[in-house]
Amino acid sequence: MIAETASRADLHVHSKHSDRPSEWFLRRIGAPESFVEPRELYAALRDRGMDFVTITDHNSLGGALEIADLPGTFLSSELTTYFPEDGCKIHCLVWGVTEAQFAVLQRARENIYDLRAVLRREGIPHGIAHPLFRVNDKLTVEHFEKLILLFDCFEGINGSRDPRACDLANAILRSLTPVDLAALADRHGIAPEGPTPWVKRLTGGSDDHSGLYAGGAHTVAPPADTVGEFLACLRERRHEPGGRGGSSLRLAHSLYHIAYSYYRSRFLRGGRADTSVVGAILRRLSGVAAEASLKRSRCAAVYSAVLRPIGRVAHHVRRRRLSDIERAIVDEVMALVERNRRAEALGGLPAPTPDAERQRFEAACRITQQLTFTFARRTLEHAKSGRLIEAIQSVAAIGPILLGVAPYITAFGAQHKDESLLRAVEDRYPAARRGGSAQPKRAWLTDTFDDINGVAHTIRTLAGLSAGQGRPITVVTCRPSRPETAFPLKNFDPLGTFVFPEYKDQTLVAPPFMEMIAWIEEQRFDELIISTPGPVGLAGRLAARLLGLRVRGLYHTDFPKYVRQWTDDDAMEELGWRYMRWFYGGMEAVYAPSRYYLEQLAKAGFDRARLAVLPRGIDLERFRPERRDPDFWRAWGWNGGFKYLYVGRISEEKNVRTLLEAFTRLAGARPDGSVHLAVVGDGPARMELQRAYRRPDIVFTGALHSETLAAAYASADVFVFPSVTDTFGNVVLEAHASGLPAIVADRGGP
Prior knowledge:
By secondary structure, the protein is α/β, with parallel strands linked by helices. The protein is built from 28 helices and 22 strands. Helix 4 runs antiparallel to helix 5 and helix 6 packs across helix 8. The longest helix has 31 residues. It is elongated.
């Protein structure tokens, strides 16, 4: 442990001389990797407690040379080097070099083995940056093991990247033994150098490109009075990492700031034409030349460039006298722009706190998501009314709005693009797994939870069983109020609801997509399970894609068949199948409820190799023949007779009307009143059917629960389930367990 009076330096930080961005957002708008002036960066690092200052631009000494005349500085760079066997890129930090040494390193860096030889020969302090980050997507576990053999120093805290990769690498590096090094040397044919090659030392660096977080992660060494003494500490490996790792919100904030600087430099100087994507959006929305519009602007920050389209859309919203919610959103936009305008300066400002990052994220999400929901709803309204031009205009307005969260989407993806590599490393080194636990952490996402249907029943049953066995699964849903459960559940407040045009009882919630993704990231789930292909399921698919998570799907409901029934249109059914193939495509596994539906999905174009059947079970303590009560039906006026029973949702797609028609014909042939039909459940068609079939031998009981439902099953004589759209039908098993034979349709899951 190094004393509190230690010396500190950020050993991984960038200036404007790093100009090749890796993030999609910056490449898309044409911005370079950094706009930070070296002298401003020097001042910020000094203000944030760094005793010594260096700049590690990519393959350049440019930034370090600009501050070389200032006290406490030394020349450094981040070199891109390659494994010659396959071209895998590695970033190697070199500190305290001379210009002559740097020239030699530049010639040697094309081959990592040659580079290491020069570094050792010249005695140059060096370390591997972010050792489990795939610079060009070629890094494997084998490359990481070769790095362990080749180098003694690694970056232990990277202030821009999610800590998971560094924590995993650190756990492995700190646990190495002589036996481990000998085994690695035999495996890869590389002889480690030095008396104790299994002892690794760690550094810290912010890897900051915006200036906002410079010094947030750094390297701590014993007290040093001069640069020479500090470099000696690095050379002798007397140091440790300090500060904190990065996050998606921090990276997004940096991207905003870099884009801000880009637009300021691009549009407030000279008269160059604007050919950028954002500029094109500005021209389309404003109806005037982008250059003239921007020259009048006093705020050419990213919040002006990215959120300005929102301001223009909101301006038209005001003119059309729309809702109070939209007016409130306008105020939010203005407040967000103003907050970030005040944060423009670099020198002398402390780095933004996690709370400030969270507040900015929530504000951007609130604005973007609410506006997106408003225009999406308007698109549907226009489409239903046949106003196609207005519908297209509403869709077009959503594009610029989404730019408000584009940096966050970019950041989530960039932070987790290497999850497959990290899982491979964990498989190779089980002791380094998170928390040392082999039990995966799972979340189960569903659009329906407190409804009366098979999906909700399955989730409640299995989540409850898992919790009872000490293997809890967190259920994630989006409802107006949080359901009460005996197992972990996360409920998000919906932004609003959409109603199906052809099925008004069925609504979809609009979930807060970005907050859901951020929460899933924070919880560190290993796997997502998705039960429904609605908006919550879509949020789960997007989260899995961005965060690199494994995802499995359950095919509960035959939506294409429902669509066919609702619309009476074969083309709409095929469109439904296309959506299903897209939604479930790429999942590690898709579970069908029965063999019948597994075959149906395979015929519909699903990958058979990824299909499996999810077995179902019944609580035999609740559902059993012994629950039979001869007097149970007296409450509905029945005394004796033969009783048919239906249990389920009362809706058109369940084919309940056909059941009622069939029973009416049967009862007509039995004028003695010896047959009865009990319809148990609720749904959108209940009241209409109850009025249409008002007879003493038919009762609609409403929904029954728990012991009462179990007694209803056992006290009937035959169970009838006419649905042809159910993929399984839990109620059929419940009837069987209760001692009832079942009559079901000749197709479908039952």
